[in-house]
Amino acid sequence: MKRALFLILIGLGGAAILVALGVWQVQRLAWKEGVIADIEARIVAAPVALPASPDPEVDAYLPVTVTGQFIGETRRILVSQKTLGAGYRLITAFQTEGGPVLVDRGFLPTARETAVLPEGTVTVIGNLQWPQETDSFTPEPDAQNNIWFARDVPALAENLGTRPILVVARQLSPAETDVTPFPVDTSRIPNDHLQYAITWFSLATIWLAMTLLFLLRRRRGQTAKG
């Protein structure tokens, strides 16, 4: 009897812990959905002038309008998208009144090696972003073929001689004909809390089922002996 009671306590206690973890993930899901909703609203807000000294934390996703001229060379960032296939993000230095910044002009398919750089005064409407795309597995840039494997803002800024500020273009005026804008969105923000919650609740169900099965087998064994 004591052993059975012990097993019941273990079963209920373990299931309670697993359910609590599932509830916590549901709460985290609601929090993350709120964060994403706030970011989405921020992305599509009316653009403002580029701050003098934008902060990567405070000004991430801030919609801005900048006017100036593209200068120097363009760096190609290798990417692959389901709807567009393989291609490059084109990052070019952009001279503004406050100094040069980086502009992510958009997507160019790998079938096209280059795109004509817009000349003269250009107005860019887009969003500030400091993407975290590098880790210990990210290859070094292939300088010979002008292929980068991540948008490393500090490294790109040093390479192109700009401030470490990236404007991801949503619209260019005049528009480019060969480059497809690849604007900021929230698709890359991880939100796996629902899957985690389902996993914890499933484990709780399995834990209870296994506990019940063990108790039933033990009872049948005792009945057979009796």
From TrEMBL:
Annotated membrane topology: Multi-pass membrane protein
InterPro entries (UniProt xref): Surf1/Shy1 (IPR002994), Surf1/Surf4 (IPR045214)
Entry's localization field: Cell membrane; Membrane
Highest taxon, organism lineage: Bacteria
Keywords for this protein: Cell membrane, Membrane, Transmembrane, Transmembrane helix
Main location: membrane
Segments passing through the bilayer: 197-216
Family: Belongs to the SURF1 family.
Protein name: SURF1-like protein
Record lineage: Bacteria, Pseudomonadati, Pseudomonadota, Alphaproteobacteria, Rhodobacterales
